[in-house]
Amino acid sequence: MSNITLRDISKALNISVSTVSRALTDSHEIGEETKKLVLAYAKAHNYIPNRMARSLKVGKTKSIGVVICSIDNSFVAQMLDGIDQACKDHGYQIIIMQSKESYEQEKACINLLYANGVDGIMISPSYQTSDFSHLKELQEQGFPIVLFDRITSEIDAHKVAVNNFKGAYDATQHLISRGCKKIAHLNSKSNLALTIERFEGYKQALADHQLTYHEDLVKFCNTTDAEKVDANIETAMRQLLEKQPHAIFTTTDLLTTKALAYLNEHGYRVPEDVLLLGFSNADLAPLLNPALSTVQQPSKEIGQLAAQILIQLVKGKDLGPTATTLLDTSLHIRRSTQR
Question: Please, what CATH class does the domain formed by 164-297+331-337 belong to?
Answer without folding.
Answer: alpha beta
